Amino acid sequence: MWWRSASFILDRQQEQNAAVPPNPESLLLSSPPPSMADSLQNPKPDISAYYQTRAAHHAVVTSDWLAQAHAAVSIQTDDDDSSVIDGKIAPAAGGRGGDKAFSVIDEFNSWRKQPDLAEAVAAIRALAAVIKASQATTMMELEIELKKASDSLKAWDTTSISLTAGCDLFIRYVTRTSALEYEDFNSARSRLIERAEKFGEISCKARRIIAMLCQDFIFDGCTILVHGFSRVVLEVLRTAAQNKKHFRVFCTEGRPDRTGLRLSNELAKLDVPVKLLIDSAVAYTMDEVDMVLVGADAIVESGGIINMMGTYQIALVSHSMNKPVYVAAESYKFARLYPLDQKDVGPALRTIDFGVPIPSKVEVEKSARDYTPPLYLTLLFTDLGVLTPSVVSDELIQLYL
Amino acid sequence: MPDTQALVNDFLNKLKKRKIEGSQATAKQTAELLRSVISQTRVPYTNQAAALIQSVKAVGERLIAANPVELAVGNVVRRVLHIIREEDLSLTAAAMAGVNLSAVSDDEDDADGDNQPVLSAAAIAAASRSTLRPPSLQTLLEDVPDFAAVPHTSSSGGDSEGKSKSADKSSRSRKLKHDVIEAVNELIQDISTCHEQIAEQAVEHIHQNEVILTLGSSRTVLEFLCAAKEKKRSFRVFVAEGAPRYQGHLLAKELVMRGLPTTLITDSAVFAMISRVNMVIVGAHAVMANGGVIAPVGLNMVALAAQKHAVPFVVLAGIHKLCPLYPHHPEVLLNELRSPSELLDFGEFSDCLDFGSGIGAPLLHVVNPTFDYVPPKLVSLFITDTGGHNPSYMYRLIADYYSADDLVLQRRATSGN
């Protein structure tokens, strides 16, 4: 049994020398690229925009993505279809909120295009743009305007929890601090804008802090199971690899948007031994796994997480096999939700490509995310520190009391 | 300061040779040593707190390295660092309340920059407090100085004010040192009275005619049981002997001397007897940040048995045993391996332990670990000097007692290799 030792790296090298394995890149290429472009071309209103962006940013999409993996090629394809989305949404939003609501959503969408920018950051930047454009002369006016803008943002994509969380966090910041600290409205305003613009840095810094905290938990010779693509998880693994830790990673495939392929690709670049699993092989491989590491779309008040579909079952399997489940997520993903069960979270729908036509009578489960109760989580790595799930509600209560 | 140096070396030797028995004694002596280090440290006019933190950290790192398994040392070092930060902060706040705003440049000076508008006193106080508090959602958007920069900004409090008189400053520096020593004295007091504080709560937990099980010997448990006895509770105690050191025998003897009906059982009989037990009360070596317990060997087994029969598993822990680390931390994974002579008689087994035979190593190996890890889900309740707490609440106590900047104390030492 080699999974407690670092010798698997040597084994692997020997194996590679013995028989030249097929190039992993070519493997990826040979798999039929999912028709992401098609699905984006005709967006249905009931499809979660949040998960569409995620798919566009994180999924292995086309062969040209592989050709220039570092460059954010998805921007170009995004631009074409986002105009369609905007065209669809704008009349609805414009009807209610008028000119301003339109601009905040526009702003948000343009921020969202950046693959490295989290959704909450985009929301906060969009709200900062509202402050900039605002004609308000008192704090109260500004707050009302912000509230309106954030409401229209939230209404634009009800499925995105981090959008809601980001809006809430910023509104809370505006109401709680600035009014107390400053006598002068203009200085308060400029301060708010400055803080919001710095928020992008905060989010990057948060990732680094999390990576530093988390890498202590990665010991030499361990096997880590990851699910889906998460920037934080990637940062954690990258930091650990840079610190010369010997570990290997099992990546789930992450159907249907194949986010796991992307992650395995990135890890292969870092020279981390990585193995790709189909989503249904999790229980089969769990005895080799030392820890499960996942990101989160949102951390809810119970201390549970909302994450990509499949996280719940991985957590269940690892719980029954007594493996720790770690969650790496930035603290602005804390959301004021208390889901009681899976269906309590509003479904975020997406298209699923089965490769073959599905008879119209057959129903398809299209939800993109599930809820993992705190019972199955061991620890949460956030920029606030390493937390047990019960700390989350404490933090949220402190902020929103 | 040659005399502190001698004291430190003496204590280091004791730690290395495992001369100090028990975490309470270790904690107390560490605190006393740090007190003398603080009183010997010559404090400059500026940056007094930073100087103190520096010297305490320097000594603390060596102490921790001397015996990384004794977590109480690290805990006390971190507590003292936290005390220095806190006292510095309260002094700064007090000074700020007295002087008018524009004359004082505050803690956040270097972080905020000069273009910032004048903040109100309350805001300054809040901001400076936020540097001490662990990071939270509230401060996420606020201008929190860089993670690494925190020690400098918070400790440089008030020293940049060139306007106040130097006489005022020197009195302040003396005041800071005085306050810190006062607070460390309080800490020492707390450590030495923690048994009584915990024992006071005994009547709330032990009821008439109950059967209590414990393993090995812990002074906290002894005092706890005796306190209940003194309050006229009549109950029976099962003592598992705690092999291989058999300290349970001593505990049983002590309990009988105090007039408590006691039953001695072997460690392996715990599961056989647990169905008759109403509560398991044990001591701990250290309590981790996630609510897990580093405990004398054998306690994991007891905890599992207790869980099987839904018997409450209560852990008594003085405040010096609270450790802000997580059990995956390498320091914590270290277990102490004691001498094999506790396990078996060398004379009888000397043939099996012959290093000269065959492959050069004996065929018989003896491993004698000292500690067990009990995961938080097996613990029903922690009783500390501040009351009873759920395992998931331990992080809160830890956030109160330690500042986040000090957690990395010996990471530097480990990454230095």
Quick structural summary:
The complex is a heterodimer of chains A (401) and B (417). Chain A contains 15 helices and ten strands. Chain A is α/β, with parallel strands linked by helices.
Task: Give descriptors for this structure.
heterodimer; A: 401 residues; alpha/beta; Four Helix Bundle (Hemerythrin (Met), subunit A); Rossmann fold; seven-stranded mixed sheet; three-stranded antiparallel sheet; 15 helices; globular; disordered N terminus; B: 417 residues; 2 domains; 18 helices; 47% helix; disordered C terminus; IF_2B-like_C (chain B); IF-2B-related (chain B); NagB/RpiA_transferase-like (chain B)
CATH superfamily of the largest domain in chain A: Translation initiation factor eif-2b, domain 2
Percentage of β-strand residues of chain A: 5-15%
Spatial gap, N to C terminus of chain B: 29 Å
* Strand order, largest beta sheet of chain A: 3-2-1-4-7-9-10
The number of strands of chain A is 10
Helix percentage range of chain A: 40-55%
- Beta-strand content bin of chain B: 5-15%
Q: For the residues shown, what is the average pLDDT of chain A?
A: 78
Main β sheet profile of chain B? 7 strands, mixed
- What's the story with the biggest beta sheet of chain A? 7 strands, mixed
Helix content of chain B: 40-55%
Subcellular location (chain A): Cytoplasm, Cytosol
Keywords (chain A): Cytoplasm, Initiation factor, Protein biosynthesis
InterPro entries (chain A): eIF2B_alpha/beta/delta (IPR051501), elF-2B_alpha_N (IPR042528), IF-2B-related (IPR000649), IF_2B-like_C (IPR042529), NagB/RpiA_transferase-like (IPR037171)
Protein name (chain A): Translation initiation factor eIF2B subunit alpha
Describe, in plain words, how this protein is organized in 3D:
The complex is a heterodimer of chains A (about 400) and B (about 425). In chain A, about 55% of the residues lie in helices and about 10% in strands. Chain A is an alpha/beta fold and about 400 residues long. The termini of chain A are far apart. The model of chain A is unreliable at about 1-5, about 20-45 and about 70-100 (pLDDT under 50). Chain B is of the alpha/beta class. Chain B folds into 2 domains: about 1-190, no CATH class; about 195-335 and about 370-415, Rossmann fold. In chain B, about 45% of the residues lie in helices and about 10% in strands. Chain B has helices spanning about 1-15, 25-40, 50-65, 70-100, 110, 120-130, 150-155, 165-190, 195-200, 200-205, 220-230, 245-255, 270-275, 300-310, 330-335, 345-350, 395-400, 410-415, and strands spanning about 210-215, 235-240, 260-265, 280-285, 285, 295, 315, 370-375, 380-385, 385-390. In chain B, the strands form 2 sheets. Chain B has a 7-stranded mixed sheet. Chain B has a 3-stranded antiparallel sheet with strand order 5-6-8, covered by helices on one side. Chain B is globular. At the A-B interface, helix 9, helix 10, strand 10 and helix 15 of A face loops of B.
